[in-house]
Design brief:
The protein is of the alpha+beta class and 150 residues long. It has 4 helices and 3 strands; from the N terminus they run E-E-E-H-H-H-H.
């Protein structure tokens, strides 16, 4: 079973094709329609120097965009590290929204730590009884000499 399909092309002439609706995959052109050649499209050509200039500008723009992406990723990592809440700041995935909004960054860190608490920083805070502490008394060399002289 076939039915006729009419298609208008760019030159406002009509092509008539028989379309196979039975599904056997054979499309045939109507014998009554004159065969037409595809109109030749004239491609615009540009001078070589102009094309090379455009390509160089495009390459430079790609390099700048890559550098901007790298700097944004480094800034994101630095902002996450500044919170001090993650052991490894690269654990939080990059998101542009974190660069502009500190609340979004803190919410993302909270959400990540809720899902994966093992990523939290394990740095002790406060006095834990270890390390350098302030001396209770000040030591005086003159006081020690006086004490030994008696």
């Amino acid at each position: 079973m076939t039915e006729e399909l009419t298609i208008e092309n760019d030159t406002n002439e009509q092509d008539v094709h028989n379309v196979d609706t039975a599904g056997d995959g054979e499309d045939t052109q109507n014998a009554n329609a004159p065969e037409q050649e595809a109109p030749e499209s004239e491609a615009e050509t540009f001078p070589r120097e102009y094309v090379e200039k455009l390509r160089k500008e495009n390459a430079d723009a790609r390099v700048k965009a890559k550098r901007a992406d790298d700097l944004a990723a480094r800034l994101h990592t630095a902002l996450v590290a500044a919170t001090g809440r993650l052991a490894d700041p690269s654990d939080l995935e990059f998101d542009d929204a974190h660069l502009d909004d500190a609340d979004a960054l803190n919410a993302a860190v909270d959400e990540l730590l809720a899902r994966k608490p093992h990523l939290a920083s394990r740095r002790p805070v406060g006095s834990i009884g270890q390390g350098a502490t302030a001396p209770a008394d000040s030591v005086s060399l003159a006081g020690i000499l006086r004490q030994n002289a008696q």
